[in-house]
Design goal:
alpha+beta, 2 helices, elongated
């Protein structure tokens, strides 16, 4: 599963682990990705989305119908 949020577009970021001797090695910061199922009244069915924790908060604030309408406008297949 790709670590990308369907609502916010959050993707992994990259940086360094820094040891006590200040030696740097590459590392990856993954977003907090969750699979979540919502019932969408406008579609009349359940939709499973891959969301970050912030994406879940966006849905709580705006509502699932508004978020799904934006996703369909972008051309995301649900």
């Amino acid at each position: 599963m790709a670590a990308v949020c369907q609502v916010t577009g959050a993707t992994p970021q990259f940086g360094h682990n820094i040891s006590h001797s200040h030696r740097r090695t590459k590392r990856r910061f993954d977003p907090n990705i969750q699979k979540k199922k919502y019932f969408v009244p406008s579609l009349g069915r359940n939709v499973t989305l891959t969301l970050s924790a912030k994406g879940i908060k966006v849905i709580d604030a705006r509502g699932i119908d508004a978020v799904v309408a934006d996703l369909l406008k972008k051309g995301v297949k649900l």
